[in-house]
Design brief:
72% of the residues lie in helices and 7% in strands. With 439 residues, the protein is mainly alpha-helical. Strands 2-1-3 form a 3-stranded antiparallel sheet.
Length: 439
């Protein structure tokens, strides 16, 4: 009877119970939770010279910064030492992924196995430091131009930039500790924790919106649920390419031929959330540049550019921003997927391992076949990501609810991280069941 109840429990609950019954996995989970608690403390360590009331009002008026603040778990709104989160490091990682296949010296390093990967990671960490300092200065300049922060002197500016840069590197270190001693990818879990921490505020706004517009809020909730389902389906969707292997072994003076079959899973959404990060950075750039030249007393062309890229604008003003955002996400998805696919070198790997796709010749024919498939899959994945990107605008137009935002990008990240952690946890449990630790 007890075994039947155990089998009838949801898979997630049973996996967590089994994980806490094992000392090593329990230690990993507790360590991960402890690091996340430390991260939440860092979010509330403020930097000097900030008018928090003016800062809160500024974030409420700027939807794009409000979305970035959602990813940081409120660190940007508090202007804490963790205000930039781990995004300079993510930017550095993306830059390195794009440079490795282009620069021969980096490509040679990447082909040196584990030692080469460590060198690439070291370069990525070094590159993250100047990127973090540059982003810290840009964020400080933006807030100063909007009179949110009193114009600091040179030493205060250096202190703020140094603290923000150190905060980013500290978060990266905490994330790598999670990867090494905890469960899941630490950098992704840090972002996930920031998103989840902002859910309480979103829930409070939802209650107020329901009192003002119950029908629109209900439709808003339905669209949010459909977005969640669509994201889960597309994250898990993939096409299986059958592969056969023919191997020859020499034993006892005779040649034996062995064969086997498997498949290559080509995902519909190979690029993940990277194109959304690219597109957000590009859409933020015009407003950032315009903020340096705006004049609130005498509006000029820069004020018009700043308003043109206002993500909170409805129809027709928001069409420019969200239309460009749609096209950028679609284009970046194609570009990034093809770069990653070229780095994988699947046709050459199959040929070296004695594998082949049934009915397709090895070499160039296999390469053309796989390229054609990945392009068709990427079209569907790019269209999916582009629709996910503009879902906040569509939900606001359809429902008329402006105080809420379906942060589809945040949902995409949260669902992806949750599924990845769940898969890693189940793989750890499967390995221990195989070894006889779990009965």
């Amino acid at each position: 009877m007890q075994q039947q109840q155990k089998e009838g429990q949801p898979r997630l609950i049973q996996a967590m119970r089994d994980a806490f019954s094992l000392p090593d996995l329990r230690q990993r989970l507790v360590f991960t939770f402890g690091i996340l608690v430390a991260f939440r403390f860092l979010v509330h360590v403020p930097l000097p010279g900030v008018d928090l009331a003016a800062l809160t009002q500024f974030f409420e008026q700027n939807a794009l910064l409000g979305m970035l603040d959602l990813f940081s778990g409120g660190a940007m709104r508090n202007f804490s030492i963790a205000a930039m989160g781990v995004y300079p490091y993510i930017t550095s990682s993306i830059i390195m992924q794009l440079l490795v296949p282009v620069i021969p010296s980096l490509q040679a390093i990447s082909q040196q196995g584990e030692s080469g990967q460590r060198r690439i990671n070291r370069i990525t960490h070094f590159l993250a430091v100047p990127l973090a300092a540059l982003q810290a200065y840009s964020q400080l300049a933006l807030l100063t131009s909007q009179n949110v922060i009193a114009r600091p002197d040179v030493m205060t500016t250096i202190t703020i930039i140094t603290c923000m840069t150190a905060g980013t590197i500290l978060l990266v270190w905490l994330g790598e500790l999670i990867t090494e001693r905890g469960i899941g990818n630490g950098i992704s879990i840090i972002i996930f924790a920031g998103i989840v921490a902002s859910l309480a505020e979103s829930t409070g706004r939802a209650g107020l919106a329901f009192q003002e517009n119950p029908i629109g809020t209900a439709v808003f909730g339905i669209l949010g649920a459909l977005t969640l389902v669509m994201i889960v389906v597309f994250i898990e969707a993939h096409r299986r390419i059958p592969v056969q292997y023919a191997r020859s072994t020499f034993r006892g003076g005779r040649m034996y031929r062995q064969s086997g079959s498997t498949y290559i899973p080509l995902r519909v959404n190979t690029a993940g959330m990277i194109p959304l990060i690219f597109a957000i950075a590009m859409m933020q750039l015009p407003q950032l540049i315009a903020s340096y030249f705006m004049n609130p007393q005498a509006p000029n062309v820069w004020d018009g550019l700043y308003r043109a890229f206002d993500a909170s604008a409805g129809l027709p003003g928001g069409l420019l921003y969200w239309g460009l955002y749609f096209l950028l996400v679609f284009g970046f998805t194609f570009f990034y997927t093809m770069v990653i696919f070229e780095q994988m070198s699947l046709p050459r790997t199959l040929q070296q391992q004695g594998g082949f796709v049934p009915g397709v010749r090895p070499g160039k024919s296999t390469s053309d076949y796989l390229n054609a498939i990945i392009k068709r899959l990427t079209f569907g994945g790019a269209l999916f990501l582009a629709i996910v990107a503009i879902m906040p605008f569509l939900a606001r137009v359809v429902t008329g609810v402006s105080v809420l935002t379906i942060s589809s990008t945040a949902i995409l990240i949260a669902v992806g991280v949750a599924l990845d952690v769940m898969k890693q946890l189940e793989s750890q449990l499967t390995m221990r069941r195989y070894d006889g630790f779990l009965k």
